[in-house]
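Handout for the seminar on molecular recognition.
Each group receives one record of this type.
Step one: identify the two inputs.
Step two: read the structure output and locate the region that could contact FE2/S2 (inorganic) cluster.
Step three: write two sentences on what you found, then compare them with the reference statements printed after the record.
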Amino acid sequence: MANAHQNPAEPHPSLDRVDGRLKVTGAATYSAEYPFENLAHAVLITSTIAKGRIRTIDAKAAETAPGVLAVLSHMNSPGVPAYGSVKLPAERAPVGTAFRVFYDEFIYFSGQPVAMVVANTPEQARHAASLVHVDYESEKHQTDFEANLSKAAVATSVQRNKTSPFQDYDRGNPDAIYTAEVKIEATYTIPTQHHQPLEPHAIIAVWEADDKLTVYDKNQGVKSAQGNLAQAFKLPRENVKVNSKFIGGAFGSGIRVWPHTVAAVLAAQKVNRPVKLVLGRELMFTSVGYRPFTVQKIAIGATKDGQFTAITHEGTGQTSTYEEHLERTILATRAMYVCPNVSTRYRLLNLDVNTPTWMRGPGDATGMFALESALDELAFALSIDPLELRLRNHADSDPERHLPWSAKSLKDCYRIGAEQFGWKNRILEPQTMKADGMLVGYGMASSLYGFHRHPSKAKAVLLADGSVVVQSATMDIGPGTGTAMTQIAATMLGVNPKKIRFDLGDSGLPDAPGQNGSSTIPSVGSAVHAVCKALKIKLLTLAVAIPGSGFADVRPEDVTVKNGRLFPSADSSPGIAYTDILKHHKLTQVEVTEESKPGAERDQYSMYSFGCHFVEVHVSPVTGEVRVKRVVTCADVGKIINYKTARSQSIGGVVGGIGMALMEESAMDHRYGRYVTTDFASYHIPVHADIPQIDVFFVDQPDPYVNPIGSKGLGEIAIVGVAAAVANAVFHATGKRIRQLPITPDKLL
Amino acid sequence: MKDKNEIDATGPRRDGDHHQEDRRLFLKQSLAMTGLTLTPFSFFNAEPDSYSVLAGNADRVDLSLTINGVKRRLSVDPRTTLLDLVREQLGLTGTKKGCDLGQCGACTVHVDGQRVLSCLSFAVMQQGRKITTIEGLSNGASLHPMQEAFIKHDGFQCGYCTPGQLMSAVSCIREGHANSEAEIREYMSGNLCRCGAYPNIVKAILAVKTSGQSV
Ligand code: FES
Ligand code: FES
């Protein structure tokens, strides 16, 4: 039984997480956990109306409450230099304006920060916050997506940009859908969903001097946060330090620098002390973005034997009144399957809500829920096995860009997944499989996510004792970045991983992208690969200079490494220890920095990660309760660096997808324009009892074109498609097609 | 005593019944402890208005308890939760705050050997009690078997739920509720993991349980 969860293809035992010990002993330090003498504590006060303006803020009682240092609002904020001063008469921010905290009296959404209490202790701050009275002048708000759908329009940013991928798209004949032999057409809805990482967003802001700022902040990119804060406060970039060594999950919620972060920096300025702000769970619903409410209409036309002849995909997502958040919702449809006639449309609906943001598998998790559900509907209409339908329409090259794939092993994923799952035991007809009084359903779906690689730098330092320090300003929100990078360095340098330390999460380290878009291993992994290669060459040069070392005339490509030693070739001599090379040259260390970036391959190949998920559900015919019994997931992400952490990342994606499919829904009371789901008792995420064992498989073939390490991203494809696989399994079990997530029992009865 | 054991044995859960029970226990304890330690005034008898005034001016209260084997004599704001006491005042930040509402399990510690949600317990309720936090789980440099198992089975990603999961996992075995994967899932369901490390956590707990090591 133990073996059932092992990947038979696993080539070598994986390195345990390098920070595992810190995490299991409680010694890992997250943003809110840095000790400071004189630390002050902040509590945010947020608007209770969705639209209007602040008439007055009465903070007198709070200001005189014990321990209170300041009550901050637009009336007394030190001001963010980049905002400029308020023009009079004040006007609402036009579309395209990032939210400005404590700037003027306008309210754009319920839960907007309007004031902040800073006090000596958290208890004093919390109490004083309850004493602040804000008086509002309300205006009529619009927060109901479905009621306002007819007002959706092409985003203004898209109108201005003729090459935007979100422009209306027609490939072939847009009318082909009307003449298809067989056609299905349906509308799919996903509600607003929230990231809700277990660690709430938190920051400690410290002004080291009038023009020097340090923040310990929960975010997914120390370099971009550094740039943003430097810009906002008009400081030289190097005067801003961002430290984010441990992040308790984020899933996209930490990609931007949010208003609360800026608010804490303002507060620290105001009280001239380090200030800590930790968002309460309820504020995590209005402060750090969300997966937007999205409605999609899909039609697929096909021949009777299941060849696609036309696909139309229209998607409309929600955004705020002040910013346009676009995501890939309709884009996968153009590339996923071979089809001559494809049309897509993308619209936005501005509402009196806060701006959404990217959430794991942004756009694609949404779009592929609709597309992969629609495929299942077509398969049923045609009485074709859903996997067979996908194989018949498999795209051997990119049908959108007319380019070859850099590598694509989706067919292998289908084969491995189907075999491991036992897909052949599926009975085509829904509502036919039963077990223990439960309706049994098998469902599957495909997954894809674009390949992203950004310029990245890494530094490697070999020390006199033979240990190595590798550094890059990359992040770890959970996948195990440090572990994977250590493993790459250990392999490249032939050094025991225990002798390698990888530093990340500090804006003072060499440039690297934030952790998003499944880009970390492809980008930073390549930089670590490059810097270790450069270090090896430098060591060779030093070895050549040692008389009698046997390295004269040795070509760099022939050098091999093992156990901290350099060898002139694979099969020769005792070689020379790195430590001896340094000793001979009387060096205390050897240091190199390298940059790695993408090149012309991006224009020659279309690059994606692919995968698929197979799900078995049991549905109670009495209560409509859905239990996920089994999941088999298989991913094609090029070479796997560390099976253990990669498998965990896949499992995490599947768990997130199960939440998306069965329970996650941020419900709003539109009378007030406010969420009523503001905690884990009302916004349900999967718990232990909801999750079965999940079997993860990888094709594990290096992609020869994407980068030197042959690895593509895994974080997003792990969740993309999962919700559709669950919905398809529910249909197979019950004969009921649920097109509006989440699939709660009421929809099945 | 029987009552208390039963409640604690089910651990921090979030489904209706047990939640209710947790709250009832919580209230009972609060009342008992305020009676014992907060002689100057009682929050529970105060009118709403006087409540705000009183709370704002609350004095500090003396408290002695044992944390990770060390006796501490402290002075605390009576509004301080056990969670904020360990995190903010004592610098033991291994215990995590995920929700502050008793819904996530990240703040789980052991009080007199039972798993307890420290965010739902006032510090002043702990007079004379023995608290164990994640920092006190291992024995010096050598890890607790459950910590070893979490590393081996990769029972976490971001690590934020991990201290709470570990404290609950140890209790789960001590309570005798780790006899199958299904039972472990049931008795660990008060500890949320947004990274979705559940299958690996279950494997880690089962491995420790079947190894017969003492926890
Ligand atoms: S922090 Fe105590 S249960 Fe969440
Ligand atoms: S490991 Fe991230 S929440 Fe559990």
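Reference statements: Strands of chain B lie at 61-67, 70-76, 108-111, 114-117, 130-132. The domain at 58-136 of chain B is CATH 3.10.20.30 (Ubiquitin-like (UB roll)).
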